[in-house]
UniProtKB/TrEMBL annotation:
Family according to the record: Belongs to the sulfotransferase 1 family.
GO molecular function: sulfotransferase activity
Keywords: Transferase
Positions in coiled-coil regions: none
Lineage of source species: Eukaryota, Metazoa, Ecdysozoa, Arthropoda, Hexapoda
Protein name per UniProt: Sulfotransferase domain-containing protein
UniProt KW Zinc keyword: no
Pfam families (UniProt xref): Sulfotransfer_1
Alphabetized InterPro entries for the sequence: P-loop_NTPase, Sulfotransferase_dom
Stretches assigned to the Sulfotransferase domain: 36-298
Length: 303
């Protein structure tokens, strides 16, 4: 039995492709009680959300490295975690339904979501609550390759990469269509409680991003603290950090569903432009045309 092969639903006007269990949580997510001092991270899957989430959580929580030993999916969880697997696994991993337990989390809560803006809690969308919101973007070629590896490991996807990229371009992978969600986030960028960052930027100059985020969260850091956080967030350190490398979670998923996640690294090479190792020049050209077609006539200028 494969929890992610149970089927997909198309949610909202933009027909967002989500696991079938979404139906059980749609209302709970919509009515979720947001707090003004929450920190939300909104981004599509495989855009570096775990990396960014770790940075946000540590800055928001005064660099409490001791408390950061708690696994990331329970410390700064995905809002819609409950929709990803059937309830028996959610019970085992999360200790029961997560969304209701988020109410008991101490402030400041750090919560991430891959959901299209229109599917987020009402209080965020209508502005009645103003949590800090970070929007993270990554080039779709690298995100697609990363999601392909993830789909093979965690949902037993058996197709080729070329087949997967066709699904990705057609918006038929989890959380697709890519551009619909990207624009739903992009439209929020001028709000005073919103900050945009990119995976590229984090790769190019992490201390600069840390400084920018610390200012945004009103938690200024010294140069020494920034350096310490940069080291903690380096790919080699994160690969060895069991609170963020998801090794235990992958093991549980394998035991339960006979998948092969444990053989895959969740934190892989983490490169900008790493897609060339798997994507043929022809597929890359298809992505270029698709990117051009989708951003032409808009002011989207991140990649
Ligand atoms: P790759 O598969 O391209 O290596 P998410 O957390 O949204 O699922 O994103 C996963 C991607 O972020 C993976 O990309 C992973 O390797 C990358 N990543 C995780 N930690 C990272 C780090 N410390 N530095 C750079 N990339 C990182």
């Amino acid at each position: 039995k494969n929890p992610l092969r149970a089927g997909y639903v198309e949610a909202g006007e933009d027909k967002v492709c989500l696991p079938i269990y979404y139906k059980n949580y749609e209302e709970k997510i919509r009515k979720f009680e947001v707090r003004d001092d929450d920190v939300f991270l909104c981004a599509l899957p495989k855009t570096g959300t775990t990396w960014c989430q770790e940075m946000l959580w540590l800055i928001a929580n005064d660099l409490n490295y001791e408390a950061a030993k708690e696994v990331t999916y329970l410390r700064c969880p995905l809002l819609e975690s409950d929709i990803l697997y059937d309830f028996t696994l959610i019970n085992e991993i999360m200790g029961g339904e997560l969304i209701s337990r988020l109410e008991t989390f101490k402030s400041p809560r750090c919560i991430k979501s891959h959901l299209h803006w229109s599917l987020l809690p009402e209080q965020i969308r209508n502005g009645s609550k103003k949590p800090k919101i970070v929007l993270l973007f990554r080039n779709p070629k690298d995100a697609c390759v990363s999601q392909y590896h993830f789909a093979r490991a965690t949902s037993g996807y058996k197709g080729t990469f070329e087949e997967y990229s066709e699904l990705y371009l057609g918006g038929k992978v989890a959380y697709g269509p890519y551009w619909k969600s990207v624009f739903s986030f992009w439209e929020q960028r001028s709000k005073p409680n919103v900050l945009v960052i990119t995976y590229n930027e984090m790769k190019e100059n992490l201390p600069k991003v840390i400084k920018k985020v610390a200012r945004f969260l009103e938690k200024p850091l010294t140069d020494e603290q920034i350096q310490g956080l940069e080291e903690h967030l380096s790919i080699s350190s994160m690969k060895n950090n069991s609170a963020v490398n998801l090794k235990e979670l992958y093991k549980l998923v394998d035991e339960k569903y006979k998948l092969t996640a444990a053989k895959t690294e969740f934190i892989r090479h983490g490169k900008v432009g790493g897609y060339t190792s798997l994507m043929t020049p022809e597929t890359s050209a298809k992505f270029d045309a698709w990117i051009k077609e989708n951003i032409s006539g808009t002011d989207f200028n991140l990649f």
